[in-house]
Design brief:
By secondary structure, the protein is an alpha+beta fold. The chain folds into 2 domains: 105 residues, Vaccinia Virus protein VP39 (Rossmann fold), CATH 3.40.50.150; 117 residues, Alpha-Beta Complex (DNA Methylase, Chain A, domain 2). The chain has 9 helices and 5 strands, in the order αβαβββαβαααααα. Strands 1-3-2 form a 3-stranded antiparallel sheet, covered by helices on one side. The protein has a two-stranded parallel sheet with strand order 4-5. The longest helix is centred in the last third of the chain and has 15 residues. The chain is globular and about 60 Å long. The two termini are 21 Å apart.
């Protein structure tokens, strides 16, 4: 079994779902299993949840490998680290090799990997919007309507990666004046980098660095979906908050494809 560096810490009762996962594997006995979760799961209880998962799957006859993969290394225009465990009842499994890397790395310099995809590549061609506007020519391209005091703050934040701390303090929300931390809240994305992790709050500038790099609004739902790697013909349905949760909870399709392709190459 192989491991990698394990960043982060924390605890979440949802980690206990690993036992439900093992029960399903025991009942179905698939030839290959793939498990995905946040990296923190490998640290909670001193790594106990991951250790239990590995122990229980091993007892069922699976050979396992695991690691922390960053979606940006697989063509997703977003840094999103996930714990991936792959198990096989046949032989030693493997994880997919990265296809992308930091533009300044030797990998890219030697032509062995492509540069990380950027926010500009992902969303710059979409029609401009104002807050609360929708462009029906692109599915789910709708931006949240924002309160006027939020808009005053956003207008004062420098374009292309600016943070709320760079705006006049008089425009900060009262909660930000009282609280130190969460500095990404109301921050703009950078055009020339992958985005930060797209969460279930991606439609809401108060939940993280989810302000458009240039336009004075939060991200549209389609922009969030593109940053997750979804094509435009994948249409989300439901009220905006539900769509935001669907997008933020999703596994980026390019990362899922990379894992599935490696499984197919190894075993099918």
């Amino acid at each position: 079994m192989r491991n990698t560096h394990l960043p982060g810490a924390g605890d979440d009762p949802r980690n206990r779902l690993v036992y439900a996962y093992v029960r399903a594997v025991r009942a179905l006995r698939p030839r290959v299993v793939v498990f995905e979760n946040v990296p923190w799961m490998a640290r909670t209880r001193g790594g106990g949840y991951l250790r239990d998962l590995v122990t229980l799957l091993s007892k069922l006859g699976y050979r396992l490998t695991w690691g922390i993969l960053d979606a940006a290394d697989y063509g997703v225009p977003q840094h999103r680290k996930r714990l991936i465990v792959v198990g096989s009842a046949r032989s030693e499994p493997s994880l997919p090799e990265p296809t992308h890397a930091n533009p300044g790395s030797l990998w890219v310099g030697e032509g062995l990997r492509r540069p990380w995809r950027t926010v500009r590549e992902a969303i710059a061609d979409l029609p401009p919007l104002g807050h609360g506007e929708e462009d029906p020519s692109v599915p789910n391209h709708v931006a949240r309507r924002l309160p006027e005091n939020w808009l005053r703050l956003i207008r004062a934040i420098p374009k292309d990666g600016g943070s709320r701390s760079q705006a006049p303090r008089s425009l900060w929300l009262p909660c930000h004046r009282r609280h130190r931390g969460h500095y990404d809240v109301f921050g703009r994305l950078w055009w020339g980098r992958p985005s930060n992790t797209i969460t279930t709050g991606c439609w809401n500038p108060s939940k993280g660095r989810f302000v458009h790099p240039e336009q004075d609004r939060g991200l549209s739902l389609r922009e969030c979906a593109r940053l997750q790697g979804f094509p435009d013909d994948f249409v989300f349905h439901g009220p905006p908050t539900a769509v935001s949760r669907q997008i933020g909870n999703a596994m980026p399709p390019p990362l899922a494809t990379a894992i599935a392709s490696r499984v197919r190459e190894d075993f099918f």
